[in-house]
Design brief:
alpha/beta; single chain; 252 residues; seven-stranded parallel beta sheet; globular; 42% helix; Rossmann fold; 7 strands; 8 helices
């Protein structure tokens, strides 16, 4: 295969699909990971110049690592891993849901770290390899909502600098990509997102394609390893007492 390869976890829908489309348009071979969005993943793959679909439940860390090992064995120029997949369920600062916490930590933090370790140990690439950990603007602008989700993203975010410091190959890069409220989330409908999505410093909706272009930029390795890009229209600079979803519903 002459094209460089990228794996986008959670690549069948939402931000992941935007990232997959951007890499495909830029000439990459895109491996689209999904858990149970097979039809959407196949439709997206068929629309890209070079793509394939792979399925894995990231709650199973051993299966996630096996997926990395299998791809590394057959991709001759695998340059980028985008750990985008995540689960986003609600629990509160007053009541942590153990099952919600366990799933969030496994899917949003533990498996991405194990996959990163496997990728850096095994992937063959022409030039440096890039890992892009999709985190959240909540890393610097937390609020009491979505407790387990936020904890898991903080856990993943903490590894970015750690892994960057430990990289043995000076050409490798570990990056963070922190979105804000770019798409309707949880139980929102589109009209609600039109309000909550603008509760940021610029008062504008953040297009998922902005995140996709940021991922493409990071894939080139221009920034120092360990850096995080915030693509959220300034939401991380505007602290709020609750998630913007609930602030919009409360008319704040």
């Amino acid at each position: 295969m002459m094209r460089p390869a990228v794996l986008v976890t959670g690549g069948a829908r939402r931000i992941g699909a935007a990232i997959a489309r951007a890499f495909g348009a830029a000439g990459w071979h895109v491996v689209i990971h999904h858990r149970d969005s097979h039809e959407e993943a196949e439709a997206l793959a068929s629309a890209l110049p070079s793509a394939e679909v792979i399925s894995c439940d990231l709650a199973d860390g051993d299966a996630a690592l096996a997926m990395i090992e299998a791809l590394a064995a057959r991709l001759s120029d695998w340059r980028v891993l985008v750990n985008n997949a995540s689960v986003f369920h609600h629990d509160s600062i007053e009541h942590l849901e153990p099952a919600t916490f366990d799933e969030a930590m496994a899917v949003n933090a533990k498996s991405p770290v194990r996959m990163t370790q496997g990728f850096l140990a095994l992937a063959r690439a022409k030039g440096g390899r890039r890992v892009i950990q999709v985190t959240d603007q909540k890393l610097v602008n937390p609020n009491p909502d979505f407790l387990s989700y936020t904890m898991s993203k903080h856990a993943l975010g903490a590894t970015i600098a750690m892994m960057a410091m430990a990289c043995k190959n000076p050409e490798d890069r570990i990056y963070g990509l922190a979105p804000g409220a770019s798409l309707p989330s949880f139980d929102q409908h589109d009209a609600e997102h039109e309000i909550s999505g603008r509760l940021n410093l610029l008062g504008r909706l953040t297009d998922p394609d902005e995140l996709a272009q940021a991922a493409l930029f990071l894939s080139q390795g221009w920034l120092a390893s360990g850096e995080t890009l915030f693509i959220d229209s300034g939401l991380h600079l505007l602290p709020g007492p609750r998630d913007v979803l609930f602030m919009a519903r409360a008319g704040q």
